[in-house]
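Example 3.2
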Amino acid sequence: MYSSDSNFFDSSDDDEVVAPRNSKTTPAPPPFYSFDDLQVFKESTKQAICCAIDFETVDNHIGRGSTAVRSHSKSSVILQSLTSQNLTAEEKENGDQRQVRILFWDSGLEDRIFRQAGINLHELGSDIQAWDLQAWSPFRIRLHNGKNRGQAKGEQAFASLGVLGATDDEEKPTMILHNATNDTVAQLLALLRFKVLKSGEWKAWFDDKINLAPISFDWVEQDIHDHNLSLRPADAGHQRSGQWGKRRK
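Structure, written as tokens:
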């Protein structure tokens, strides 16, 4: 189902027939098509450490120069360190490693950077995998993404789960995916939203295609919220106060 131009990432067991994903090599998370499947997924990942990575832009000369080498080496060290976090004393004694899942959205750029940087996940831990959420079966099915070469739109997918916050008077989410930080936060919140879904919520979202109620961001400290707002792209023609970002026109 996925391109075979790289073997850095685990292959997927998903044999679903979908549109090609061009040169993207990162597999989707394990598929699920029912609430029972979702429960199995929850159980299989309850001990996992999940992180999200998003690269906004990159030049065509990844891996050149001492700065790039140090950056790539640091990335590998950080990813490898996740495999030993939050281990119990018994797990440490047994030499166990933590399950790690790295989340991408539309993994083309991340695939290229990891490939050119020579980052091989299999060398960093016994159970460390990258997942491309854009290719995940619930999003493809729920949003009919076979009509768009299997490409889900991030804001549409995340808003349907309610993880972009409340909607404004134009039914647009108030958290805007304008930078890598917001993108990765939305990815992690989407994964967590799936992991706490109840049966009725799953049916409403998956079967009836009803968007879930927006979650509250009142748990975000005000200074962090204000700092995030200060980093948003300038858009003098469309001021939106009290939100995580600005909508691109």
